[in-house]
Amino acid sequence: MKYPTSRSPGALCEVVQLVWSQASSFVRVRLTAVLMLVIVASILTALAPVALKLVIDAFTRQARGAFVSPVLLLTAFVLAQFLARVADEIRGLIHARVERRMFRMLSERLFAHLMQLPLRFHLGRQTGAVGQTLEQGLQGYRMILYHLVFTLLPVTAQLGTVVLVLAGLARPAFLGLFCAAVACYALVFAYGAATISRAARSASAAHVAAHAAITDGILNYETVKLFTAEAVVQARVGEALSRTEAEWTAFYRRYTWSGLRAATVFSVFLAATVLCAAREVEARRMTVGDFVLINTYMLQIIGPVEMLGYAMQAFSQGIAMMERMMALLRETQEPQYRRHSAHPSGPGALEFQGVSLSYRVGRSVLRGMSLDVPAGRTLGVVGASGSGKSTLVRLLVRLLEPDGGRILLDGVPIAELPLATLRQAIAVVPQDTVLFDDTIAYNIAFGRSGASRREVEHAAMLAHLHEFIMSLPDGYETRVGERGVRLSGGERQRVAIARAALKRPRVFVFDEATSSLDTHTEREILGNLREIARATTTLVIAHRLSTVADAHEIAVLDSGTVVERGTHEELLVRGGHYAALWAAQKQGTAAQATQGVTA
Is 10-329 CATH 1.20.1560.10? Predict the structure, then answer.
């Protein structure tokens, strides 16, 4: 996927719109309060030097005999400083609550969106890269929100106040110097923001790639150990981290050069302002208070203007970090609902009508395949690897959409069903059961939201798992480990069967559910499958033909089409594809048995 190369103004508006659209009333009220405090604090900060100027002028006139008490002015100066600091502290507290609430809401939205993306998206992504994209995007959002509240808005308010004060002094030369300084700073930081944005984008991409390499190595740790490939994986990760280091070094180098250019602008305009103000005081065209006011503004505003420049650079960095996340948010979700969606109820009859699918151009997986499964019957689907067996499952639950043809459930095209309705009607027991790092009870109850403990235990009994669970010290509260690694393959399959049974579906789908098990465990699991699927429409995808020998009918796939169909005995008598597969598997089984005896 090609990520967009958005530029700061439009991208910044997009980020602000995203934040505001996701904000609850809690966030919006407090964010508005933060903005008001920002404006108040900034105006008070900008007006404080005016009070100081009046104090100095009062002292100067007092020395010449024109007594004006400066107490009130001093009080105003101190009070302005105090109130500005109080407003800053309150702003920080309110902002913290707003920021954390928004972080939670955006995280929830991003995760929900990611879960709604179609299978094609996930097949083309690395888990580590997606996770790091979300993490960097949220970090970029926090950076943008912080500088928006604590830099951009207060500095803008201060600059506006200072311009008004200088205009009121009727000193066009100093107003011109001030505006020229701001303009030069804007040019310097605009150039810096452009170069820093490019560097930040490259550094962000390198960082994501490095995190993906690390995650990939951790997820495949067992394979790494089996092949003593620690050094190979370490070298791969080290190379990715080296690229990340180089890109971040280039980023900070550009950041430093931008700071040096800003420092030069600051020195030049500060010198010009001081010299010009000193000459005006010597010529008695300005008071000492005016001198202090102008130079205080120059010193006071240059800092915030620099902060504003750095904030723009931070915006560029934050936007670069958010670009991939925003691209994820623009990914099209699965179609959850259709207009006039049907909600049928029936025994679970399935029909595939001329279904075609290609994963990519030139690689057709299914070619106009037609297949039906009568309600309450069991159909076995067999074929060589790559014949399209498992693709049927993904199409049936709409993890993939067909290029042509349609699939019907009880006579209704599944494309017209809400996804939730369709997937609640179908229970899938996959070949590789991946469990959550939680308890056995949680993993079984995952089959149906709101299931009671009694229902969970009943499902475990159907899968002949209850006695094993009760033999464990923690029973149903036993944690299974990440991806279920603390359970054996057969135990994980039984958990998957219990989870499917708890769902009470109209259609059961067993996708090579016993292919990775030994013969003894396979017989036990097959017994469990027949028991829970009795009188329910069942589709059994199998590589081992013994798995489907007792099915009502068997369909043989080859190159994405159905080439044979019949019972086990009928297909053997025909002597076609199925008979050849059966003979080959029998011969392989006999050879393995002979090798075992010899050993």
Answer: yes
Give the sign of the dihedral formed by CA 173, CA 174, CA 179, CA 184: positive
Report how far Cα 191 is from the mean position of its chain's Cα atoms: 31
Domain extents for the chain? Answer: 10-329, 346-425+509-562, 432-504
Tally Cβ neighbours within 10 Å of residue 234: 12
36 contacts: CB under 8 Å, gap ≥ 6: none
CA-based nearest residue to 306, from 193, 182, 195: 182
From the list 526, 221, 238, the residue with the least C-alpha distance to 380 is: 526
Angle between the 25-63 and 288-329 helix axes, to the nearest 10 degrees?
170
- Helix, strand, coil tally for the chain in percent (to 5): 65, 10, 25
- On whether the 432-504 domain is CATH 3.40.50.300, my answer is yes
For 16-52, the pLDDT digits (tens) are 666 666 666 777 777 777 777 777 776 777 676 776 6
0.85 cut: is pTM over it?
Answer: no
pLDDT digits (tens, 9 = 90+) for 155-214: 777 777 777 776 666 567 777 777 787 778 778 777 776 777 777 778 877 877 787 778
Residues in the chain: 599
What per-residue string of b and e applies to 534-543 under the rule 16 or more CB within 10 Å gives b? eebbbbbbbb
Residue that is written with structure tokens 């699965």 in the block: 334
**Spatial distance between the Cα atoms of 73 and 54, rounded to a whole number of angstroms:** 7
Q: At 534, which amino acid appears?
A: R
DSSP string, 406-426: EEEETTEEGGGS-HHHHHHTE
